[in-house]
Design brief:
Elements (H helix, E strand, L loop, with lengths): L21 H15 L4 E6 L5 E3 L11 E8 L2 E8 L2 E8 L5 E3 L11 E7 L6 E5 L7 E4 L1 H11 L9 H9 L5 H5 L10 H11 L12 H20 L40 E5 L3 E5 L10
Parallel strand pairs: 2-9
Antiparallel strand pairs: 1-7, 3-4, 4-5, 5-9, 6-8, 7-8, 10-11
Length: 297
């Protein structure tokens, strides 16, 4: 088991940020699941009305409801509530600087707490949504609203899709493989960090066309994608700039990055080349020797 740094941090933010991805959202969902299920909402405070993307007029429903489930969809965390036979949801987009935080975590800029939900549990107290740049939002939805939200935003989940489904998906897409991995409506949850790391481990250039990959190469990418995501979750995610778990702990998977942010350093495979940075929609970090544009292997 790779260790997770459990120190409680004073939360601040940087202007150069890396967006939380699937592992960071999964870590947040697991911590919320462990502490919130079974608790009742006592009060809700909205600091900025524009932080709620949908369902702002339903906020009065939540006090008195009980938390019954917490799930992750792509890079978002979804909390389920039940009250008097009806069910509603809180969907939290982490965005670039969005964090879900328990009350024991000190916050350096409390003016960026835009939503607070309080509970009847003394061990939990409250859950705060802190988001200084507000690229993420909250949505308050019923079941139909959640289904529509997911249908619009999320493709297959990279931890739940089968190898056969993943290989077939790549064969159907004439798109660069890295862009495909990061297309949330096709594969939900992978961002720039884990796309770079998975492609390097699979020995694939980010600009190779997905549909031109041999089945063996696509299967290798599937294995590396799943492995790296699971390892990152075990590490508590990658706290590259601004990610902290709800309990304030930092993820340690950045210590295991092989290429992301390693421009100019020797290739970890000791091939003699150095890691290069190439620019497309997002920065890619590659070893030009280990990641040639080859498709039939």
């Amino acid at each position: 088991m790779i260790p997770v740094d459990r120190r409680v941090a004073v939360i601040s933010f940087h202007y150069k940020v890396s967006m939380p991805e699937l592992p960071e959202a999964e870590v947040a969902a697991r911590q919320l699941r462990a502490r919130l299920i079974g608790t009742h909402v006592t009060d809700v405070f909205v600091g900025r009305s524009d932080i709620i993307r949908e369902g702002g007029d339903t906020g009065a429903w939540y006090p008195g409801s009980r938390v019954t489930a917490v799930e992750r969809y792509g890079k978002s965390v979804v909390v389920e509530f039940q009250k008097t036979g009806s069910t509603r949801y809180l969907v939290a987009e982490l965005g670039m600087t969005g964090l879900l935080l328990f009350p024991e975590v000190a916050i350096k800029f409390p003016q960026h707490v835009h939503y607070t939900m309080r509970f009847d549990s003394t061990s939990t107290g409250s859950l705060r949504y802190w988001n200084p740049r507000r690229f993420g939002r909250l949505s308050l939805l019923d079941r139909a609203g959640l289904d529509g939200y997911c249908a619009r935003r999320f493709g297959c989940d990279p931890l739940r899709v089968t190898s056969e489904e993943f290989v077939q998906l790549l064969k159907q897409c004439r798109r660069r493989v890295k862009a495909l991995l990061m297309h949330q409506q096709v594969i939900a949850g992978i961002g720039n960090i884990y796309a770079n790391e998975a492609l390097f481990r699979a020995g694939l250039h980010p600009n190779v066309i997905a549909s031109e990959l041999a089945s063996s190469a696509a299967s290798r990418l599937y294995h590396e994608m799943q492995t790296i995501l699971q390892q990152a979750i075990e590490c508590g995610g990658s706290s590259v700039k601004d990610f902290f778990a709800p309990d304030g702990s930092e993820g340690t998977f950045k210590q295991h990055h092989l290429v992301y942010g390693k421009e100019g350093l020797p290739c970890p495979r000791k091939c003699g080349s150095k890691i290069r940075r190439i620019q497309s929609e997002r920065s890619s970090f590659i070893c030009a020797s280990c990641q040639k544009i080859r498709t039939h292997r």
